[in-house]
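Following up on my earlier thread - several people asked me to post the actual chain instead of describing it. Fair enough. Here it is, all 542 residues.
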Amino acid sequence: MTRYIFVTGGVVSSLGKGIAAASLGALLEARGLSVTILKLDPYINVDPGTMSPFQHGEVYVTDDGAETDLDLGHYERFVSMQARQSNNFTTGRIYQDVLRKERRGDYLGATVQVIPHVTDAIKERVLEGGEGFDVAIVEVGGTVGDIESLPFLESVRQLRQEMGAQRAMLIHLTLVPYIATAGETKTKPTQHSVKELRSIGLQPDVLICRSDHEVDLSSRRKIALFTNVEERAVISLQDADSIYKIPGMLHAEGLDKYVVEKMQLQAAEADLSQWISVVDAHVNPQRTVTIAMVGKYMDLLEAYKSLIESMTHAGIHNRARVKLKYIDSEDIERKGTAQLADVDAILVPGGFGERGVEGKIATVKYARENKIPYLGICLGMQVAVIEYARHVAGLNDATSTEFREHPEHPVIALITEWTNDEGELEVRSADDDLGGTMRLGGQDCALTPGTAIHAAYGQDVIRERHRHRWEFNNGYRKRLSDAGLILSGTSIDGNLVECVEVPDHPWFVGVQFHPEFTSNPRDGHPLFTAFVAAAIGHQENK
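Reply from S.P.:
Thanks for posting it. Predicted structure:
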């Protein structure tokens, strides 16, 4: 029977609930338990798909095509789970479901209320998401005291009451600030945060105390006394220079041992050998390479969270420190490509809209002409096609219909029909809603032997995740191939171009999919590992 561990946050946001939940998941998995992690988001949006990256950060895409919170990326990187739509839901999704039922008459004319109808819908999704696993960790978004998260917290209260202490546990992540001028650790914010929880009927079993200093024993005793939490369950979690140290730090504090005992789980001792190897490779690199990342959301790097982590993973598997040089593509438009002169490789990530696109195209041209290793992802592949069409194939007006409605040479265009992973025909148009009309989720891709991408993966068929509306225009397939562009990967039915490369270049790959969503620190990812290896080779040959 599944055990449920609920994780809440208090005092301030951005304390790292997602990392803490994922790290606990990693520890329990290292003890031989099957683990899944859910994220409950209190905002009214149905999903993050149409939210600005500047406000919400990255939209993480699961294999089944769900657009979810970026914390699900942490879960998949720390735990060998494959997240699905059921692993993330929002207040908006819950209310949408409840209102749909009300319109259908499912409530038989009853007055629909937050309690019990909304809370029942939340509980139903939580139980469904944890089904079939030894442990389900449920992260509740927001901060205790926020009005938006109250229905979620009430649902947690009800579930704990219904399940009992052996099957449901509450972990509260809180801030314990260190006041440098006084030389003191302050416990009062944590006391008040727990008081807020208790006022709505929730007593935490574990407190994880975040601080930039170690929370000393006397402070932990004081916290335990005033919050009615066992002293050994008051866990100190100090800032770390690598998030991949967090599982080891929580293990040293005895968190996983306490959870296993409290929930009476039959589990082996934790085998952290993989995490020890990851941390060793991360903190002891043998070289440093500099890779330019030219994008359009550089004011909020959370928009590229999975991609940045993937580069770290590639560094780990090449025993290299990857130093990312973040460059706004509009800066390339204003100041030129001279700022790319000192880099060992160039990465152009995905994005939407016309802003900064010409800077990305100029970046591609610089990488191609100067034979600098290049990796283009999603829009990064599309601008590579546009650049090649303009400057090699002689199609001077080449662009995407995303940026101009009726160009002379729409080498990238809105494809209205394609076959999905189940072999079913999907249709879209420019007039469709933005949310849920993209090619989303995992799909198989056939690679061409003898190409750089085939060498990277070492497979004829791969599976990667998509999130985009525009595609390579098949009307230009022959013309660009005749001009030398290598179409190194296609959808299984051969209808959609997924990967491109350019000839006479040491390493130049563009992919329509998002490989960053399937990278993790233990295994890395073959494409990013090959890309960083190419950067190392370029550095050595300078």
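Residues 114-130 form the longest helix (17 residues). That should answer part of your original question.
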